[in-house]
Amino acid sequence: MEEDVKKVKKPGIVSPFKRVFLKGERGRDKKTSEKTTERRALHTFSLSQPDHRIDPDILLNDYIEKEVKYLGQLTSVPGYLNPSSRTEVLQLIDNARKTNQLAGQLTPELDAVVSLSAYNIKLVWRDGEDIILRVPIHDIAAVSYIRDDSLHLVVLKTAQESGGSPCPSSCPDLNKSQTLGSLSESGPGLVEVCCLLVLAVENKATAEELCLLLSQVFQIVYTESTIDFLDRAIFDGATTPTRHLSLYSDSSSKVDAKEAFEAEASTFSFEGSLEAADSSPSTPASPQTKAASEGELSTTAAELLQDYMTTLRTKLSSQEIQQFATLLHEYRNGASIHEFCINLRQLYGDSRKFLLLGLRPFIPEKDSQHFENFLETIGVKDGRGIITDSFGRYRRTASSASDSTANGAGTVGGDSAHSGGAGDAPAPSEGDEWDRMITDISNDIEALGVSMDQDGGVSP
Amino acid sequence: MTMEDIKNEVQTTSMVPMALYTVMYPVFNQLEKVNLSAAQTLRAAFIKAEKENPGLTQDIVLKILEKKNLEINYAESLLRMATEDVEEFLIDRREPEFQELNERARALKHILSTIPDEINDRVRFLQTIKDIASAIKELLDTVNTVFRKYQYQNRRALEQQKKEFVKYSKSFSDTLKTYFKDAKAINVFVSANRLTHQTNMILQTFKTVV
C-alpha cells in the first residue's frame, strides 16, 4: 500500500534534474505539435468501400489530396522496365537509395501531399506547400504498389520531360544532363526512357486507395480520350475532301479536279450557293449537275465549318476562341504558316493538340506540306495523339493508316505539292475565293466567341 | 425488355433491312443445300415482299422468336451475325481500290460485331472503340481514294451515301458518350447495327453505281 502511495504522482513537485532535462523535450514536443497544428487539413472525400469509388465529378471538377512521403524521382530509367516486376523495380530503388538518388530514411522532411484530379498529379511539400512536381495524367504509364517489409511504396512510371526533375533536398540532382528528350543513348542505339516517381505511404490500405483512385482517373480520362479519338477519326475521314477545298487541282485526276475546281472557283460560298451558280458563266457542266455539285460543295464546306466550330465550342473557352480568331487573322494577313502552327500549338496545349487536325481543309496548298510535317512532329497526324504517344499503341494501325492517309492526304499535301509548281500558280479569283472563305470562317469564329461570352462561357 | 419493346426500338432505327440479309439470307443459303428450288423461291418471295413492305421480314423474325418464347436480345444477336459477308453487297470489280473497300468494310463490321463480348470490360471496350475508330477512318480513306481515281456518272449518290455513313458514325460516337453515363448497352448494339447497315449500303452503292 505504501508503495502504491509512493507511486502516485504528487502534482507541483518536479525534480530539478527532470525540470532541466524535460524542458528540452517539452520544447521539441511543443515545436512538433506546433508544426502539426500548423499543417492544414487535406482536401479529402469519403470513398465508398470496398473499391474506394469516388464521384467522377470530383476528379473532373475538383481534386482529392492524400498524404505521402516523397522519396524522389528517378530519371532516364529504361522504358522497357516492367512496372509489375517487384524485383526489377526494387533493384532500381535499392541502387538509387545507395547512391543517394532517393531518400534512404523516412523522415518528416519527406512529408508531402499528392493532389489528384482528372488533369494531373501534383506533389507539394507538406510544410510550406512548395511544389515539387506536376505530372499530367497522360504522362503516367503505370502505377505500382510494392510492399518491402514495413515499407509501402507507390511507384509511378511516367514520361520523361527534358530538363530533368527535382529531387528531395537531401539527394543530389543527378542525371539532369542526361534528360534531354525522352531518348537516351545506351549501347549501340537509342533507348526510350522514362521516370519513376517513388512515394511511400503509411500502410497497405492507403497504398491501395491511392492506386484505385488513380485507376478511376485513368478510366475517366481514357474514356474521354477514346471518344475524342473516335471523333477525330470520323472528322478526319469525313473531311479528307473528295474535291479540294483549297481550290488547287490534283495532278492524279485532272479531269475530275478541273470540273470541281471550276465549280468551286465560281460558286464557293457558304450562303446563296445556288444563286451564285445561276449567275456564274464559267462552269462547263450542265446546269442541273452544276447546281447539285455546288450545293453539295457548299453543304460540305458548311458542314465542315459547322463541325469544326462545334468542336471548338466544346474544347475552347470563349477567350481562347477569340485568340484563335486573332491567330487566323494574322495568318491570313501574312503571318507565316510556321508561326501560325506554333502559336496554335501553344494555344491548344498538349491535351487539345488534336484540334489542329480539323484545320486541314482550310490550309491552302502552298502551306499544306509544312502543316502536315508540323502535325507529324507533334504526333497528331493520322489520329495519333495522347493515347498513342504515351502508350505506344496503334503504331501498326497508325502506320498503315498513315500510309493510306499519306496517299489520301496527298491531294491536300504531297500530290498537290508535287504538282504545285510554277505552272499551278493560282489565278487571282481563286485567291479571292480563299480570302472570302477564311474571312467567313474568322467572322463566324469571332461571332462564336461573342455568343459564348453572352451565354456565360463553356467549361473546358 | 419485351418483344414489343424490342420491336418498338428497332422500328425507329435504320436496321430494319438487316433482318432480311443478316438473318434470312444465311437461312436460305443453308436451305439451298436441302432443296435448291424451294430455297430460291423463298428467297425471291422474301425479297419481293420486303421491297413492297419494308420491315416485314423483321416482323416475321420477331414474331417467330416470340412464339417460340426465346429470350434473345435481338439487337445483340443481329450485331454478332452482321460480321458475315453478304454476297449481294460485295463489289466484283478487281481493281485494288475496290477490293480494299470490301476488306475495309469487312474489317469494320467484324470489329463492330465484337462489341457484345467486350462491352462489359471497360479496358477492353475502350480498345475496341479505338479499333472501330481506325476501321472507320480506313474505310473513309478508301472511299475517298475511289472518289479521286475513278470516273462515274452518279457521283451524288456516292457522296450522299458517304454522308449517311459519317452521320451514323457520329451518332455511334454520341451513343457511346451516353452509354458511359447510363450503362444501357442495348443502345450501343442498336447504333452499331445501324452503322453496320450503312457500311453495307456503301458497298451496295459503289457496286451499283461505279
From TrEMBL, chain B:
Would the keyword Cell membrane turn up in this protein's UniProt record? yes
Gene Ontology molecular-function annotations: protein kinase binding
**Which Pfam families does this entry report, sorted A to Z?**
PDC10_C (PF06840), PDCD10_N (PF20929)
Q: Does the keyword Transcription apply?
A: no
Q: Which residues form the Programmed cell death protein 10 dimerisation domain?
A: 13-70
Q: What is its main location?
A: membrane
The domain of life is: Eukaryota
Which keywords, in A-to-Z order, does the entry hold? Angiogenesis, Apoptosis, Cell membrane, Cytoplasm, Golgi apparatus, Membrane
Q: What is its membrane topology?
A: Peripheral membrane protein
Of the GO CC terms on this record, one is: Golgi membrane
Question: Where, subcellularly, is it found?
Answer: Cell membrane; Cytoplasm; Golgi apparatus membrane
Gene Ontology terms describing biological process: angiogenesis; apoptotic process; regulation of Golgi organization
Give the family, as the similarity comment puts it: Belongs to the PDCD10 family.
Stated name of the protein: Programmed cell death 10a
Q: What is the lineage of its organism?
A: Eukaryota, Metazoa, Chordata, Craniata, Vertebrata
